[in-house]
Each structure stands twice: as structure tokens, then as C-alpha cells.
Amino acid sequence: MSSRLDALNQWVLDVARLTRPDAIHWCDGSDTENDALIARMQADGTLIKLNERTHPDSWLHRSHPDDVARVEHLTFVCTSEQDDAGPNNHWMSPVDGHAQMDALFDGCMVGRTLYVIPYCMGPIDSPLSRCGVEITDSPYVVANMRIMTRMGAAALARIEREGSFVKGLHSTGELDPDRRFIMHFPDELTIKSYGSGYGGNALLGKKCHALRIASHQARKEGWLAEHMLILGLENPQGQTHYIAAAFPSACGKTNLAMLIPPEGYREAGWRVWTIGDDICWMRPGEDGRLYAINPEAGFFGVAPGTSEKSNPNALATIQHDAIFTNVGVTADNQPWWEGIDNGQQPATDWRGEPYDPAMRPAAHPNARFTVSAKQCPSYSPMAEDPQGVPISAIVFGGRRASLVPLVFEARDWTHGVLVGASMGSETTAAAAGQVGVMRRDPMAMKPFCGYNFADYFAHWLSFDRDGAKLPKVFHVNWFRKGSDGKFLWPGFGDNLRVLEWIVGRVEGTAGAVDTPIGLQPTEGDINLGGLDLGEEARSLLFGFDRAGWQAELESIGSYLEDYGPRIPVALMEEQARIAKSIG
Ligand SMILES: Nc1nc2c(ncn2[C@@H]2O[C@H](COP(=O)(O)OP(=O)(O)OP(=O)(O)O)[C@@H](O)[C@H]2O)c(=O)[nH]1
Ligand SMILES: O=C([O-])CC(=O)C(=O)O
Ligand SMILES: [Mn+2]
């Protein structure tokens, strides 16, 4: 092979010497290869065939019951200086990190096959894309990476051309939670992950490469790697605005990215086009606007709650050639989860036991589907454009049962960065640990920023420079609850009403009132026609709670201060300005 692949070949040999696999397989991404892997996994029980008539070429995978979500407490960023990883990351020195991981990898592939997966994050011919190679001993990881990335021969050819790539080493090990770590070495563009087969821990192109390592590269090279969906909103005049939105894990990105407009809007000609549902890489173009690509090629989406009513596009996408992880099944082997709402009943739960609602839900709350984006009816042809799409609005949002109104607009970029930096959200089942606890999750990147958040905020602020035509910044909250504990906003398709207002603000046609936290719509500024919103809903979704925000700004101030002297002065000044204007 040519000399530009020498580094890759040498690394594969070094890893093989350490892990001692029985065989080495270089993945080409072909159908034949995939068929053989699937057949092997079906034979050993890793994959269970689903109903071929209702779900052609689709599979169920039951993970180890202790391996169902990301493990933030076992995820490390290894920089030489601890301060460079920041208080937002667990840290280990690169020397200690490598020593600890290499001890785990020693001999771990005896009796297994080592797979080499060359992949490209982003369209193969895009200057914004980046390549990586994942080495793994898991055929399940190979099958998922094939859906989630541009994997195989074309990626290898690009790696050969460029000579550089991100190195990811993965082994499922023994799936022992006490022998499980996900470590990142940003200065070496290297990832080492051991002991888990779960998506965010094991599909290294996703969170490990496209967010933690890429955020570090992006800072050096002047772009942004973000935990954001990208959608195109087409209006009845046929114009499309592209919107990027950051919501924490399991807080609605997939749903918003695939939104189907509610009655009335559909007929009028409104349409949402899906570019991506989880990750967004963007950089300033020559015209000063931010241009974005989705580095992924598939969706690794939350199954529970997905129904014909909540997300018909997702449901259509997963009708065939999908891998379902930790869902329940019906008596005739159709996938089933809580909230699927299709009139069927589960027979077997995600652990493979007879379904007993007193015992456990049929699907794990973080059960997922893996499916190619090309199968999505709303997938935008622009998602394959090597130049990316120009972003008109950036939207931040979280799960906030109280205080935070339905939507508001930041005054300017600096204010927008503060709004992102002070995001809060209640935790979900996407990560191991307690669910429903409010925590700060700046830009939805708490688990994913590969460096010190203080430096990250400074990087965001730095985009406001001469010639920049930056998107407007907004904050939304679909999850405000009323005194009865129920969501006040219908959400899902009706979120289009909020997107319409956002685009109206971008175009200068929608109204708003000035409040200390930003520009808020009055009830009259958003089309609420046909919705059944009570008195309480209207006042909480559109109101401004002065005392509550006073306390919130104080809490934001002390949160930011915890980052110490590295926190940008401009951000603290912005916090002080808003705190003062609340009075
Ligand atoms: N009440 C309400 N729930 C929503 C809304 N949108 C999404 N959800 C629920 O939020 C959960 C997760 O939504 P997703 O769209 O899969 O979340 P995500 O942000 O893509 O998650 P990750 O893949 O973990 O990054 C599902 O149970 C949805 O039903 C909404 O507008 N209102
Ligand atoms: O990381 C994963 O496995 C899934 C995901 O998108 C998230 O948790 O945000
Ligand atoms: Mn995510």
C-alpha cells in the first residue's frame, strides 16, 4: 500500500500486537460484508430477526442490562494540563490514561476478530468533513457505524489523500461496569473506549470524535462542533431558512428535526426538511454567514415516545433496514415501546423476559433505533451538499418544568452566548444516573465539550467579528409544566408555530416585547389558532417571572464564576447587565 497509509497500517499492527485478535478484517462497507456480519450476529444471538413482513431486514439487539446508556462518570479528557480539560470534564494525564487503557486492552481480543473501520464524518467530498478510523472487536459496532457514518472504501481513499485521521480504539471487553472507561486524547486525535457496547460509548465517530475531539479541533481551526440538529424550514413562498438547535440528550432534537407541520400549515405549504438530528459542524463562509453540515449519515434515535402521532417521519424511516436496541417485541416479533401507540401489545421486554408492567417497562427508556438518514421522507437533498447550509437561527433549549417561557430571543450574539452558556435541563435516561435532576448543560454540550468550558465560551464569543453575519439566537422550552404536573405546550408538530415566529424575527416581520431576559412574543405574536391553551398555560408560556429570574441570574452568575479567571469578562458583564435590568 502507498506510504500515506503507513501510519494507519503501523497503528493497526501495534493495536493487534497489544490486543492479540484471532483475525484482522478491514471493512470496505459493502453489502456482502454487511450480510456476512449480520448472519454471524444472527447465529450467535447478538441480533434477533424482527418480523420480516412488517419490518424487512430489521434486527433487535439486547444489550447487557448494565450497558444501556452513556457513562459520563467514566468518560475522561486527557490533556497534559488539567485546566485545559476544565471543570466540565473528568481528567487524567495522558500518560496515566494510556497506561490504564492499555492494561485493559492487553490481550482483550484473543478469540475475537479485530475490525478496522475507516469512516468519514460528513459528505465524502466536503471540505468541512473529517475522517477517522475505528478499531473494534464488536460486529454490532461495525453494523451501526456503517449506518451512522460514510464507512469503507471511499473514506479510506480520502484518508490516503489527506494522511491524517482520528484514531479510535474500542473493545467491548467483558462489559464489566468496573472495567469500563471512555478516554479522549485530543492532542493526539486519539480515543480509547473499553467495556461498553452502547452507542455513545462505542460508536466512536459520534460523541467521541464528532463532538469531543472535533470541538477541540474546531477551536484551533476556527469552527464549531455542536450537539445540534439542523433543519430547513420552507415557507409557503418556497423560501427555506436553516435552523440549528441544541437541546440536551433526549430533549427533542430528533423530533424537531423531523417535524410535520400541523393542520392548516401543511395545506398552506409549510415544510420541514431534515439535515441532521444530533450533531452540527459549522464554520463562517466567505459571505460571513455560518455554514453547517451534519457529520452523520444516520440517526441513533430514542425509540420510546416515537409514534405515528408524535413523529410520523421517524416511524416511516424505521420501517425497514433498522437496528433496534433494547426495545420490547410483540408476540409476532414486531418492535414495541412505550408510547408507540399503535394498538399492539408487547409480549417480551427488552431483557428478553415475558412482559410484566409491574416488573419493568417493555422498552428500556433509552432504547434506540439505528437507521440510515436516506430512509427519512423529510431528508433534505441539501444534507449532501459539500458546502453545507447557511444558518439563519440558532436555538437553545432544555427541559424546564418551571420559570422558562416558551420562547425568547437574545438581544445580540454576546447575549446569545450567555443564553447558551446558562442553559439548564432536567437529566434524562440517555446517561446513566438519576433522571429529572436540573443541571446546567451549556449549549447541550456538558457531556461532549472536549475542553474547558470557559475557553469554549470565549471561542463562541470570538465569532462576533468584522464582516460576520451571525444567526439570531433564541431559547425555547417545550417542557414547562402546569400546577397539575402536565406539559402546558402541546409540542411536537405544534412547535412549528414557534419556528414560524423565529423565522419571522429573522425576517423582521414578527413582533416581540422587550423584557430583561430578551425579546418575548406576546400571545398575539404567535399563531395559537386551533390550540386549546388555558389561562394558566398562556400566562406561564408567555409571561416573565421577575422574582424567579432574579434568583436564576444569581445562580447563573455563581455557576460561571466557578470557572475562575478563564471565564470571559464579556460573559460576566452580560450576566451583570441582565441581573441589573431585572432589578
Ligand atoms: N412534551 C414534549 N416531549 C417531546 C417533544 N419533543 C420530543 N419530546 C420527547 O423527548 C424524548 C426524546 O426526544 P428526541 O427527539 O429523541 O431527543 P434528542 O434530543 O434527539 O436526543 P439524543 O438522541 O439523546 O441526543 C422523547 O420521549 C420525545 O417524545 C415536545 O415537543 N414536547
Ligand atoms: O450518545 C448517545 O448514545 C445518544 C445521544 O445522542 C445522546 O446521548 O446525546
Ligand atoms: Mn445526542
Description of the structure:
Helix 12 packs across helix 17. The mean pLDDT is 97. The protein is 29% helix and 21% strand. The longest helix is centred in the middle third of the chain and has 17 residues, at 205-221. The radius of gyration is 23 Å and the shape is globular. The protein has 17 helices and 29 strands. It has 583 residues and is α/β, with parallel strands linked by helices. The strands form six sheets. Strands 1, 4, 5, 6, 7, 8, 9, 10 and 11 form a nine-stranded mixed β-sheet that branches. The relative contact order is 0.12. The termini are far apart. The protein has two domains: 3-46 and 71-222, Phosphoenolpyruvate Carboxykinase, domain 1 (3-Layer(aba) Sandwich); 226-297 and 380-582, Phosphoenolpyruvate Carboxykinase, domain 3 (Alpha-Beta Complex). Bound molecules: guanosine-5'-triphosphate (GTP), oxaloacetate ion and manganese (II) ion.
List the helices and strands and how they pair.
Layout: H1 6-19, E1 23-26, H2 31-43, E2 48-49, E3 59-61, E4 75-77, H3 82-85, E5 90-91, H4 94-105, E6 113-121, E7 130-136, H5 139-148, E8 150-151, H6 153-162, E9 166-171, E10 181-185, E11 190-194, H7 199-202, H8 205-221, E12 224-226, E13 229-234, E14 240-246, H9 253-257, H10 265-268, E15 271-276, E16 280-284, E17 290-293, E18 298-302, H11 312-317, E19 323-325, E20 328-329, E21 335-336, E22 368-372, E23 389-397, E24 407-409, H12 413-421, E25 424-426, E26 438-440, H13 453-461, E27 472-476, H14 496-507, E28 513-515, E29 518-520, H15 535-542, H16 546-561, H17 569-582
Parallel strand pairs: 1-6, 3-19, 4-5, 4-10, 7-9, 9-11, 14-23, 23-27
Antiparallel strand pairs: 2-3, 6-7, 6-8, 10-11, 12-16, 13-14, 13-15, 16-17, 17-23, 18-22, 19-22, 20-21, 24-27, 25-26, 28-29
Helix pairs in contact: 2-5, 12-17, 16-17
